[in-house]
Write a structure and sequence with these properties.
Number of strands: 0
Helix content: 55-70%
Order of helices and strands: HHHHHHHHHHHHHHH
Distance between the termini: 66 Å
Shape: globular
Largest sheet: none
Structural class: mainly alpha
Amino acid sequence: MANDIELTRMDSPVDPSPRRDFHGQNGSKNMHYEPAHNDDEESDEEDLVMDEGSQALLGPHNTSSPALSERPKKPLTFPNVVQVKSIVFESAPTLLFTTLGLLFTGELLDHVSRWRAMREVDQLIMIIPVVLNLKGNLEMNLSARLGTAANVGELDDPPARRAIIIGNLALLQVQATVVSFVAAGVSLVLGLIVPRSETTVQEVLVVRRPLPHVPPAADHLRKSGFPTFIMVASTAMTAACLSSLLLGSFMCGLVVLCRRFGRDPDNIAPPIASCLGDLVTLILISLVSSVLIIVMHTPIPFTLAIIVVLSAISCGVFARRNPVVAPLLTQGWAPLFGAMVISSGTGIVLDLFVSRYDGFALLAVVISGLPGAAGAIFTSRLSTSLHAAAKAITPTATGTEASSSAVMLMLLLVTLPVEIIFLSVLSVLGWLHLPFVFVALSVVFFCIAVTCSLLLARILTNFLWARNLDPDMYALPIHSALMDLVGQLLLVLCFEIVSLFGGRVAVKPPAT
């Protein structure tokens, strides 16, 4: 029965050492898995989905597998020593690195916002958070797909590994070109409807980054029209495609190395993909825009944009002929742009609160970014477990099987020291001077944010799986955008509560 199916172990979906071959319906290797689904029993599967996130959400025709149907339901079990070491020693350094990377990205953004291109073309500042949001989601999706492929053994065979990696890199080029062009269009619209002011940049950038310093500029510095749009679009597409090539290759290599050395890429790849995606893309946008601003009124930006588009078309044709990634060309677009809308709306809604408190941007890095990274790890692990269970892969027994709730608790305990270390570093460096009451309350709200992130990851992954949507393509963008919103709302609430009870927090004077 479907209700007797238990989710494959969350701590290590499959044994990383053996090489396995899996065959599709036609007897050939199945590189792309579509979650099974039966419309006639949708309501039964939805009930199964929400059962503590501890059961695999498989269609009725998959439940006949002995590896699944004979697995008895077990109560909550906690990870043993080996499993705890795997989660702690793989996830904790990754999360700490991600947090420091996000902080460095914010400081870099503050620096490059003073460059000539950023000062003279407003749309370049406006395009940065949109491109970073979209590109970060693309890299996280890539890492999730490769993590699943590694854990179910699809990267063990060299020809299959080559097809998966090259196909995904070609797909990433197509996605990067499309989302960066859309981001350029969004920046053009914002440049036309939003008045020039420092608040403008705050509204756009508050969602994911520390706010950059924008020097006051006269209205005549605003660039508009077709040359500006071409320059911005060319900058965004060129930077996004170069970033996808560099970072995509790095992530593929990282996942392959994790598989080779017996590490779980689900614990390592998603947060690193998001963090490095932001950093590398920001650097490339800054460098490309600094070059193109000099030749903005020449045919060079337009020519560069045409070259990027032709390259993307070539990659699209190649991906279309690759059976591994061909079905993915039409998948996952809705959550990408839905996340962009959520993130844009979040910045506008929170602008009134953000402008009141000093230090909000620095704290937002940890209270939004760190819980989001933990949720990305859990989403990737859960998705891998669902795919492995659907393929009837039984992990090698190395101890008691940890339930998803136990893994959630472990991730919460792993992220808490990272939060404390981050706040301590900010205090020692003198970047923030906050009362003890605020620090204690912020830790409490941080734990709430991590809990919300993990619960959202489980609910969203199971919800998508029950509707025959691959979580590796759909879950992470929506999860990231919603956690940006939830995390910053909790931070606003923390500031407001401390102020209400007379705590000393740095309050900015209201704008006149």
